[in-house]
Amino acid sequence: MSINPATGRTVTISNLSSGNYGSYNVEATFPIGTGRTFLNIVNCDLHNVLTDKVNFTTNISGCTISGNLKFSHGRCTANKAQSIAVVATQDNSPIGSDIEVYGNISNSFISNSQANYNFKFNNNFCAGIYVYNIKPGSANEIINNTVYNPVAADTAPFYVNLGTNNTNPGNIAIMNNASSFVVGGTNACIQNKSNSVSIAANYNVFTNTFVTEGNMTQSDNSGSMSLVFDTLTYVVTGMNVNAGNPDIKYTDLDLTRNDAGNGGGSNNWYNYWPASNGNRPRVNYLSTPRSITSGTFNINASGFSK
Fold it and tell me: β-strand 64-65 against 105-106: which pairing, if any?
């Protein structure tokens, strides 16, 4: 299925099964000069989703993707894919919203190469989170993810490398994550290969000895923790319970202290899974203030019917 970008065009795909063969993809074709195209994909069974084009927003939720998911901007919630990559583009009609990747399963990695937008990677289950570019001056989040890799890799499970000639400054909060990995090319839990990127690493828990490499501030991280990673239900249990940031902003759904890993905080894994939900309508996004002291506040939500 090919989608031709056009200024102001909105395309919605719901309840589609496209098969899992090489040519059965949902993809954006040639980029447009200016203006923006919006694509909504919900509750679909797909092979590859390749919408990594200029000025293209992809909002995808509740989908099973047997191949790869590549997009350049948008919101990605409660999907299962082989890999999830936010791809670099040179947008000339930027949009004000962030890239949001919440509550997904990736059998390999989740990565960001986009330099036009802030990114938020929260409450995902994957084998690695990699950052290859950031928006200059941005504030980015890698919070409450579970990263489990039983195969030795060349890099740390949390890896930042913008490249030799890229000096984009920016901040990344790496917090409340739970991880375990087989040591390969490095024994570092978090690697930062770019001095221009400031990492704040806090309240992360690892089964490995906690080791870092590169420019970062850190506090309250723990290594050699007893954790159990379930690759069938995609949850982590053990010493991650109540090990996350104690600030009220990160409180769990049961109003207890944050659990490190994908089951903690407001964007909790259990907001999205199990995916079937008894075939009832599903709320797939809810944005509210994490704490309210007084005054009025805004709520932004979306959902879809199966």
Answer: unpaired
